[in-house]
Please model this.
Amino acid sequence: MGVANKLKDAWKGGKKTVNGWLAIPTAFSSELMAQLGFDSLTVDLQHGVQDYMSAVACFQGMQPHGTTPLARVPWNEPGIIGKLLDAGAQGLICPMVNTKEQAEAFVAACRYPPLGNRSNGPVRAGIYGEPGRYFYTANDDVLCIPMIETKEALDNLDAILDVPGVDGIYVGPTDLGISLGILPPVMDREEPEILRIYEMLVKKCDERGKWIGIHCTTGAYVKRMHDMGFTFGTMGSDVTNLVLGVRAQLAGLKG
Model:
């Protein structure tokens, strides 16, 4: 058998999970983050300073610790989607998915035929689990999660959620606010109109048995989103947590 997707199994069991975010391109920071209690870690190739080789190193850093490896692709492009899955990502988050057609293209790039058009060659992903079994389990195991972060995506939400193979959605709070003209672009939002949108998104996902995640800064806000019905929340990144930690210690130093 292949390597089970522990994150997907946890969600099926009704567990709320916490995701970490990796913007620093080293196996060492990935290794440290993997030991701090995150259920999953996402290598960010869109806005971090990661590239393909550093993503592979990050996957290698978290591998011994049982953390589910995810990645955010830089864009909805089949080449990098297939390459990151071949590298061992067990799920992908794709930015700026605004239409049914874009969601279909994303799913197709993540799935082997007959469900999609992913090319077979899991050079790294295939070395885990029983040899030769990856192909037979990947379509079920790989999580396919488009980002909802624009007014256009909200307008097309039902069509996006109804695309076969979309496992859930991931909310990008800053871009969503920008698209709706609600500024400044902050992560842990308090605007009533945004919170109402979050509640609507949770309801639409619940109705379809889909999962839903959101990008947050603090653990307290992740808990709040869990309580609202989100399946998972990202508790900042290695970079933001480094900055927040140092700032708190410097504030304590200055008294």
Summary: The mean pLDDT is 97. The first strand starts at residue 17 and ends at 22.
